Amino acid sequence: ARRRLARAHKRVANARNDNLHKVSSRLVNESQVLAAESLRIINMLKNHCLAESIADAAWSELFRMIAYKMKREGKYFVQIDTFFPSSKTCSCCGFKLDKLDLAKREWTCPHCGAHHDRDANAAANIRAEGIRILRAEGLPVLRREMSSPKAR
C-alpha cells in the first residue's frame, strides 16, 4: 500500500512538473519581457478554503522556471514587490485608494471616474511598473498599448 501510494504521489508530481515546464516554456517563447507580482504564498496558505488549490498551483516553482528560462534566452523577468499597490492604484490617472477590500472586484476611481475590474487594473499597473523598472535599469523599452480587457 505504501509503494502504491508513493507511485501515485510520484505520478502527480511528474504531471505537475510537466505542466509547469510547458506553461513556463510557452510564456518565455511568447514574450521578450515578463513582469509578475511577487506573491507571499505562505500568507495565502492561511486561507483554509483556498490553501490546497494555492499549494497545488506551485507558483513559486513556476516563477523559478520562468526566471531561469528567461535568463537563458537573454530575456527579462521582472518581479514587482509584494507591497506595490497594484489593485488599488488607478491605471488611468495614478490615484491610490486608501483601502480596497479583497471582496470588492470592481471599483470606480474617485479622481478620474474610470471604472476598473480589480484584476485587469492590477495587470495594467504591474505591466507599467515592470516597464518603469526596466527603464530605470537603462534598458530601452518600447511601450505597446495594451488592448482593453473587455476587447479580449
UniProtKB/TrEMBL annotation:
Organism superkingdom: Bacteria
GO molecular function, one term: DNA binding
Boundaries of every Cas12f1-like TNB domain copy: 59-126
Keywords tagged on the record: DNA-binding
Stated name of the protein: IS200/IS605 family element transposase accessory protein TnpB
Source organism (scientific name): Sutterella seckii
